[in-house]
Amino acid sequence: MEITVVYEGESIQLHVTKDFPIRTLVALAHEHLRKADDEEKNSLDLFVNSKSIEFNDTTTIQSLGIKQGDVISFGPSDYNNAKSPYVSPPRSPYTTLDKVQKQALQSNLKTGVENVPESFNTTGMAYIRLAINGVEVLTLVDSGAQVSILTSSAAKKCKVKDLIDPRWKEKAVGLAGKSVDALGTIMYCDIKVGEQTLSGPLSVLNPSVTEVDLILGLDFLFRYKAVIDLGKRRVTFDDGEPIEFLTEEEALKISAFKRVQYRRRPVRIHKSLF
Fold first, then answer.
1. Which sign does the torsion angle of CA 230, 234, 235, 238 carry?
2. Percent of the chain with pLDDT over 70
3. Judgement on whether residues 133 and 197 belong to the same structural domain of the protein
4. How many domains in the chain?
5. Which entry of 57, 78, 142, 213 is annotated as an active-site residue?
6. Residue 25 has pLDDT above 80, yes or no
7. 174 and 54 fall within a common domain
8. How many CA within 13 A on the CB side of residue 153?
9. pLDDT band at residue 174 under the 50/70/90 scheme
10. Residues 80 and 140 in one domain
11. Same-domain status, 144 and 69
């Protein structure tokens, strides 16, 4: 919708949405109204169609009932008794709007860098080294996956491909809603974790689905009472010995991980299907 903001004979027209915060509107007006000093700006009252209103940080255009064509003005408490504010035609708000938004974004970025600097680095994934039939597999501990997944290439190198039952084909649905049909399920598979052995079913999918050999999902994590300690970067199964997460350098030494390096991007987006 389009509204008009007025102060001391000058006005701007703004195109805003219904959920546009009044606080942001005030910031825009303060940027636009260069004639007012800081003390004067802080003492200005807000009027909608010459009617004084109060607002807070959660107040929006919609909550105040502001409609298309309404006039929002700033002035002292007796401003509603002043003459018509239309002294000069409204000027374009876009330079002011862009400037205020850029300042807000820059301020927010600065706050983020100062308070959570680690968030601006690529977050390490929860990779661990497991083994199937004595063959090392790169594994992602994924509490967002409902079931555990083994790629068909990993099933082949671990010599369990003949155990894939095509009668059990689950449909995997990713975060973006894209579904992938499983090739089948290995109904029972032993996985070596340090000195422990975890056993259970594994859905088998095409290797293009994930960059790792194995995704250890909630079915295994619940069954073996897994405790994921992100602070110490390790996972424990059934009160066994903690398994340390791999560093990126350690993960890069595993061939399955090297094979897909060209597809990795420096973003913090969950890459599993679930």
1. negative
2. 68
3. yes
4. 2
5. 142
6. no
7. no
8. 14
9. low
10. no
11. no
